[in-house]
Amino acid sequence: MTRVAYTRYTLRLKPAAAGAETAAAATAGVESVDDWSGAAAYARDVDPAALDYAHPEAVDIIRALQPAGWQEADDGDTLTFWLADGAEADETAALTRLGALGALEVSRERPGWEDAWRRFHKPRVVGRLYVRPPWYPARVDLLDIAVEAGLAFGTGAHASTRACLEEIQVVPPGSLLDLGSGSGVVSFAALRLGFSPVWGLDIDPVAVHAAAGNAALNALAPTFLVGDATDPGCTLPAADTVVANIALGPILRLARRFAPGADGGAPELHPAHLLLAGLLAEQGEQAAAAFPGYKTANRRDDGTWLMLHLTRLA
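^ thats the sequence. predicted structure below, dont judge the formating
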């Protein structure tokens, strides 16, 4: 069997604060991003509160390349990605933009790299759930979720995703809306746990495409939608539970849809349970205060990342 050859690209960027002016200049005229904890939102200014990626503009360009794989190092200041040989001929403009953001190193990857990269992704047990790459077998004693490691955020490895997966296991099953659904892992977990119907919404079409593929892999059928939940023009289904694993900036904008109207009328959305994640530990009070119709029922804090479980006041 003929193996595909790959080229490794390593982008070394200045620390985010020091490199802000350089990044702004390099991306002039390019749609900026608002990081949704891994799902890029377009046509907005960079959100300083969205801290999953130190350099969201570079990550956005890399994701658009649809690489065979990519990863961060050095607190996000080094980004490495892999393209099949020959792909660079069609991606000259994107690679030039990346080179303007920092030092872009290029080298041929060793044969068999794609297998080694797969070994980096391991199964994870999260309560009653078993989240695994599809090349690992299922476990009969746990609820199975297979997620292809790819462009969409959400393999169960990130603390914010794990916290959401843990918390929905203590929420009474009902209808569920997964905002910033990424790979679909939370949506699949909800279905395995007995929630129905389940909707997932993400602003990134690439993520929604990946989630649809993962749905087929799991023989599950949540409804995935492309849209910006913070936009009042985006119709959202009413759900008993809403999971918003995004970031502080989008969460604060989203909160306007959960607050009473200017005339004191009922809020547009009023789920019984609201799980907010993608937050830094110190952002909890600000996030909770944005939802006056709710109280904090639980919080999961690993010292860096925070998940808030809010319940509706009577």
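The chain has two domains: 6-116, 121-312.
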